[in-house]
Amino acid sequence: MAEAHDGTSGETAGKAVAPQQDHSAPPPAVAVVRADRIPNPGFPPERLRVTDLDPKKAKHAERTISLLFFLSVIGSVLAVVAYILFPIDDQDPSTIRLNNMLIGVGITLGLLGIGIGAVHWSKALMHGHEQVEERHPTRGSDESRERAVEIFREANAESGFTRRTLVRNSLIGAVVATPIPAIALFRDLAPAEDPVALLKHTMWDTGVRLTRDPSGTPIKASEVTIGSAFHVIPEGLAELESHRLEEKAKAAVLLMRLPIDELNEREDRAGWSYDGIVAYSKICTHVGCPVALYEQQTHHLLCPCHQSQFDVANHCAVIFGPAARPLPQLPITVDEEGYLVAQSDFTEPVGPSFWERAL
Ligand code: FES
Predict the structure, then answer these.
(1) Residue 205 CA from chain centroid, whole number
(2) Interatomic CA distance for residues 163 and 157, integer angstroms
(3) Of all atoms in ligand 1, which is nearest to the CA of residue 306?
(4) Higher model confidence: residue 304 or residue 28?
(5) Where are the alpha helices (DSSP H) in the chain?
(6) pTM (predicted TM-score)
C-alpha cells in the first residue's frame, strides 16, 4: 500500500485531504493588539472648579484673562515705541543696551501676556472634561518581526553578500568612494583667494576709459544727455583672452546723468562725478543680479530679481528691498579728449555681502 505524501495511510490517501490550519493564530505580518493585563480604571469623576460653581469667580477669572491680554498689547506697543524713541547710535554703545533691553521687555510682555492668558483661560473657563485618545501599539507582532528577519536572511542567501567577500568588499569601497568627488566640488566653491581682495579689485584703474557694453566703444561726456543711462564695461575687456566673463561680472557699471541740482553727493566723494554724470556698480548688493532698470524721472535703479531699489540722486542708497548696502560708486572724470575715464578702481568690494567683508 502506497504511502501518501503527508504520511497518511492508503485508506485516506485516495481522498482529497485539506491541510490543517490553525485558525486561532493571526496571519503573518498582521499587528496583534493584545488586551491589557491590568484593567483600565478609567478617569476619576470630574471635579468641578470654583469657576464652575461660582459665577462671581468665573467673572473674576474672565477679567484676569482680559487684563493679561491687554498687558500683551501694551508690551507689543512698548516694543515699537522703544524702537522709535531709543534708536541705536553707532558711536554710543550704551544705546544698544537700552534699545535691546526695552524692545526685549516689550516683546516679552507681549508674548507672556498672550501665553499666560491663554493657559489661564483654558484652565479656569474652558470646559474641563478629560478625553481619551486611543492609540494602538506601534510594535509589530512577533510573527511579523520574525518574518522581517527571515526576509533579510533570504536576501543575504540569494545575493551571496556574506559569502562572496570580494564582491561585498569592492561594493563597500565603491560606496565609500562615491562622495569623494562631492567634497572636491564643494571645496572648489570656496574662493581660492581672499574674497575682499578678489572682489575689491576689478579691471577699473586710473585712466581706464568707460566703454559701451558690448561694443566696447568709448563714451564722451558730451554724449551722455540728462536722463540717459549707459551699460558700461572697462576699455580692453572685450580683448581679454581669459576670465573675460569673471572680469565683466565684477566690473559692469551703470552710467547716468542727472541735473546737477538734483544730485546729492557725499562730502567724502566730492569730485567722483563729472558734470552730473555718475557711475555705479551694476552688481546688486543683495545677491548679485544685474541692476538694469533705470527710472529717469525718480532717478531710481531697480533690481529685477527681488525689487531692491537704489536712489541714484543720493549715492545709490537702498530705498526699498532686501539689499543691505548702496551700490559701490566708481570715481570718474574725463581725459584730455573728453572721454569718460575712471579715477581709480572701486574703493570697496562689489556685489553681495559676505562674512569676511569689513565694510
Ligand atoms: S539680487 Fe537684487 S534684489 Fe536680490
Answers:
(1) 37
(2) 8
(3) 3
(4) 304
(5) 10-13, 50-53, 55-85, 93-124, 142-159, 165-177, 180-189, 195-200, 244-251
(6) 0.51
Closest to 68 (Cα-Cα) out of 107, 113, 110, 112 = 113
**Look-up: residue for cell 568709448?**
218
Residue 346 CA to ligand 1 centre (angstroms): 20
Q: Are 302 and 291 in contact (CB under 8 A)?
A: yes
> What pLDDT sits at residue 4?
39
Contact 12, 1 (CB under 8 A): no
The pLDDT of residue 228 is above 60: yes
Give me the mean pLDDT over the 225-236 stretch: 93
Q: Give the pLDDT band of residue 344 (cuts 50, 70, 90).
A: very high
Mean pLDDT of 223-229: 92
Distance (Å) of CA 287 to CA 193, 301, 305, 312: 20, 16, 9, 19
Pocket lining: 334 vs ligand 1, CB cutoff 6 Å: no
Q: Is the Cβ atom of 103 under 6 angstroms away from ligand 1?
A: no
Q: Which of 1-10, 235-244, 290-299, 338-347 has the lowest mean pLDDT?
A: 1-10
State the average pLDDT over residues 155-176: 88
Q: Which three cell numbers stand for residue 120?
A: 489661564
**Residue from 254, 281, 282, 286 whose mutation best tests the ligand 1 pocket (most atoms within 8 A of CB):** 286
What average pLDDT does range 144-170 have in this prediction?
89
Beta carbons within 8 Å of 71's beta carbon, 6+ residues apart = 109, 113
Residue 158 grid cell: 540569494
**Count of H helices and E strands in the chain?**
9, 10
Rounded mean pLDDT, 97-125: 91
Residue type, 92: D
Hey, what's the cell of 294? 533705470
Which H or E run includes 244? helix 244-251
78 lines ligand 1 (CB under 6 A): no
Q: Among the atoms of ligand 1, which is closest to the Cα of residue 323? A: 3
Nearest CA among 339, 345, 289, 283 for reference residue 316: 283
Asked whether residue 82 carries a pLDDT value surpassing 80, the answer given is: yes
